[in-house]
Design goal:
By secondary structure, the chain is of the alpha/beta class. The chain is 43% helix and 15% strand. β1, α5 and β2 form a beta-alpha-beta unit. The N terminus is likely disordered.
Length: 340
Amino acid sequence: MTLDSRATLVGVATHAGVSVASASRVLNGLPSSRSMVEKVQASASALGYRPNVIARSLKVQHTDQLAFAMSDVGNPVYVTMMRAVEEATRDEGYRLMISSIASDPGAVVELMRSLRHGYADGLVLSPLRVTDALLAELHTPAVPTVVIGTVPSTVPVDNVRANSAGAVRIALDHLSSVGRRRVAFLNGPVDTVPGSARARAFERNVRRLGLAVDDRLRVEADDFTLRAGRAAAVALLERGQPDAVLGGNDLLAIASMQVLRESGIRVPEDVAVIGMDDTELATVTTPTLTSVSLGSYRRGHLAAQLLLERLREPDRPVRRVTVQPELHARASTALLQARR
């Protein structure tokens, strides 16, 4: 076959039967599957394609950096995830950049668009709120992206999620097993992905177990933080006293324990308290906090692994993984022989 010095990238892609983007990745030396590399290189050789070395050197940039966008860098859950991601990617030669903006969908979209300028090679994203604009960006991400959290199955990015509904079920089963019937739910904002999922699961499982159904026992904090939790716990007690509190996360549960203690209400003698996330804080409170683990470290580690695999093999099928919850019972829900 006669070599054509005018062979183009489009011609190579057509000859190989692959997309122009895939052909470009191979010819620019970016990570691709073995079969993709073989097909594109064979077509380039057959057509006599010779890339513009100067243009390629200007275009191809390896930053050796990955970005992690989270909701709140002060939340122990995200600190644990961050540590897991950093540990999993460090040995591969990557540095980790942290952005604490994932509670603001608009800021997340801006961050994702900014990555087109080559600031990072990949992104781990844990958004609290998912909007149509964010979903649109996730359909065409500038760099390989993994989402920690729940997104529709139609979104073509790797995804690691927690089973929040299962965690609420486990928490309520435990409270019911220690004799608590009037369970309050101190949730975070229900316009967030976790807040919405946990609210639905709470209503469903309260009815399943025959626990008290009372709107006064449902309080929504402004955020998943200690400060917001304290305000919500005060509002809850003004409506009446439950015999148990389920916090939408550990911070909200700990805030409720603080307010209960300040009000002269004993934990667990008068009110049992259980959290979600099983952060390190749960082991240092007084009393220690029963909590349902959502596998924060495991979710971060899995997300990092999926991102590294995507960087090495961009064309592999999308993977979705769910981490199952696990109860860690401690003193805040202890079964007492006689409650006074």
